């Protein structure tokens, strides 16, 4: 059981790492500086561990909620629109590619591509239902709940359950990240486009930063509440 849970957790972070790795790779190719890869939330500096791998800083926090790559903010805003667009779209593209590759490995090229298309459309539909309020909050799960569901599937069929979780997560991450909300790739892209279109008016960046703070706080609180709910349902 412990091996199954550990595998599910590692797979979850692998999906997030692939998404962020594609952002970082695109940033390097576009000549933008990567400030750090961040594993977890660096809420308490004394509890964070910092190191460098080939000149790229890595920050590890015991608060293991999330993972991200920090790209020099000023350079990203001032690079026009094309370079930031490439960087921001590479993350979702990487998630789609990774999910499709897993599907093709499991089911073969032809069937894998068809399954990927269905999973992508299903993810879009699921996000739409959540946004319009047609999904009851009681059915929502956080990371712990998703890992629990995955362990059930992996108990029945370890390989297929693991592959299905990785595929679902990749397509869900790709779709959600493209939503035009501050803090997400789609929202950042929208604000950078508006910044370039308005002749780099500072007010656009101020709105983006405040929106990111609000949405980011809501997302963190939401994940924490769902995690508490998930653990409560386990016992």
Strand content: 5-15%
What's the average pLDDT? 82
Total domain modules? 1
Shape: globular
Instruction: Give the spatial strand order of the biggest sheet.
Output: 2-3-1-4
Draw up the topology in text:
Elements: H1 2-29, E1 34-39, E2 49-53, E3 56-60, E4 67-71, H2 73-78, H3 82-107, H4 109-131, H5 143-156, H6 158-177, H7 185-197, H8 202-234
Parallel strand pairs: 1-3
Antiparallel strand pairs: 1-4, 2-3
Helix pairs in contact: 1-3, 1-5, 1-6, 3-4, 3-6, 3-7, 4-6, 5-6, 7-8
Can you walk through the features of this model?
Helix content is 69%, strand content 9%. With 235 residues, it is an alpha+beta fold. It has one domain (2-33, 72-234). A 4-stranded mixed sheet has the order 2-3-1-4. A hairpin with a 2-residue loop joins strand 2 (49-53) and strand 3 (56-60). The longest helix has 33 residues, at 202-234. It is globular. 26% of the residues are buried. The model has no long low-confidence stretch (mean pLDDT 82).
Q: What tags apply to this protein structure?
A:
globular; 4 strands; four-stranded mixed beta sheet; single chain; alpha+beta; 235 residues; 8 helices; 9% strand
What is the gist of this entry?
By secondary structure, this protein is of the alpha+beta class. The protein has helices at residues 2-29, 73-78, 82-107, 109-131, 143-156, 158-177, 185-197, 202-234, and strands spanning 34-39, 49-53, 56-60, 67-71.
